[in-house]
Design brief:
There is one protein chain. By secondary structure, this protein is of the alpha+beta class. The protein is built from two helices and two strands, in the order H-E-H-E. It has helices at residues 3-12, 26-39, and strands spanning 17-20, 44-47. It is globular, with a radius of gyration of 13 Å.
Length: 61
């Protein structure tokens, strides 16, 4: 089950659905957040507690 499906189901059931973004890259997090926004009008949340900094492979020395 994907983050967006689970967080939407929890929100639709009356809870606060959460998307754990700490292990996602910024593009993946943005995609999950925007798709969740399209799937529900109920409140949901996202967390960045363990967010990591990603460096493009070609930029790493």
């Amino acid at each position: 089950m994907t983050y967006k499906v689970l967080s939407t189901a929890v929100s639709e059931a009356g809870g606060l659905g959460m998307i754990g973004c700490g292990t996602m890259n910024p593009g993946g997090a943005e995609q999950n957040i925007l798709e969740t926004k399209e799937m529900t009008r109920q409140p949901y949340s996202h967390e960045w507690h363990n967010a990591r900094i990603y460096i493009r492979h070609d930029e790493a020395q």
